[in-house]
Model the fold of this input.
Amino acid sequence: MSGSLIAIYARRVKVFLLWSLFIIIILLSFRVSNVDIKTLVEGFPYAVFLIGEMFPPDFSRWEKILLLSIETIAMGFWGTILGMIISFPLGFLSAKNTSGGILYYISKGLASFLRSIPEIVYALVLVISFGFGAHVGVLALSLSTIGLLSKFYAEAIESIDKNPVEAIQATGSHGLGVIRHAVLPQVFPLFMAYNLYQLDRNIRYATVLGLVGAGGLGVELFTQMRSFDYQQAAAVIIVIFAIITIIDRVSARLRKDIIDGKFMNKENKYKDSLLMLIVSVIAILSLYFMPVDFKQMAYGIPRTWEFLKGMFPPDFSGIAVYLKLMLETVAMGISGTFLAVAISIPIGMLSARNVIHAPLVYNIMKEITNFLRAMPELMLALIFVVAVGLGPFAGVLAIALSSVGFLGKFYAEAIENVDPKPIEAVEATGARFTQRILHAVFPQVIPLFNSYNLFLLDKSIREATVMGIVGAGGIGFNLVMSMRAFDYQETATLILIILSTIMLVDWLSSYLRKKVV
Done:
């Protein structure tokens, strides 16, 4: 047998083994996370009943909802601003071409650590130290923002064109001079786009931080759901959806203008200036609705130290149970991601204008993805717990539906950006719709799809770690209970397990993305 035939057979065996492993992992994840179609079918009437109980929405508490809405936006805005300020120098210190030595590794490690802890875990810890309120939400979002933005900033800095840097260095400039004249002009548009993305993300997360007492609309939503006042809960959900949808669309438009170089140009100067003025006024006014008790904050610093001291040494006596819960958490993330991919592929296709020539169809699909993207996972988990009961299956459904909002959008954008020539060539042969997709579209988008799927898997496992807060399975429930029982040594163990798992998943996801893209 020739060497080429051996190589072909070896490649086929490798592909077969990889697909077999993939199928086994999916099936095991379904089993561990209790994915059960029968339970879903039986729970469907309860979901319909719950939705029916929400109508008509009760806006009688509109004044409180309005104030909490402003507070939520303020939390997201100021959490982003504080995070940006700290991320800016940290991003340069975390980039290989603008940093070095021990400082580079410390900065890189700090960013990875901060990025690995979910926002709501920060909020849980900070509530213990600084009490309830929106200031806790701002601090939690700031810490998470530092981890994410510094990573984005560092990647942008590392990918710059080296020629301008070398030209500036040739004039005798070094350090800050090179950064000011050669690096910043190249990365500024990307930095602004990342900041807007982070603002969008932070406002989304600010809507649920109230579930643990960190201010915003989440407090009202959790209170109404717990008291079974679903009409008032529906009013809060509608407001949250409206806020996130508006922020998402404004942010997307600004990001596009900045990247395309259209922001504040002659054509858009007055419109963009007015928008910036409105945003600035809202940001300043929001401080009035988000009072910060600096005396309470000062008292919280010693409490933070006491909390940290109480975590050591961690209590590993229940490690077997915790690892089992973490396995359930990972299974939830994998199951939710698989279901999201399966649902998102047809939705993404139907949302792409270049393959669907019926405006009504792709506009409906786009609105579905917009709605699902605007609904935070924990909010969906609250609803699914009512429908299918406590446990990981509710978390899987919440992760899956929320993820469809992101994947459906990403898939549609990837399809809309494909080279039209292969599609036209296949159409010229008289091929059917499915044949055009299989032979002209899929070959172009599969690498991007795989990258998106891996990114989403990383995100889904992070989200799964906190689903237990609302009773939707995983390790989150034990984390909350250990804090409420002041068993901080157990809390430390749970946080270490969550942190280690997320960092491992983050590394594995980054490694695989480099392989498939």
Notes: The chain has two domains: 25-55+311-517, 56-310. The chain has 20 helices and no strands. The first helix runs from residue 3 to 32. The radius of gyration is 24 Å.
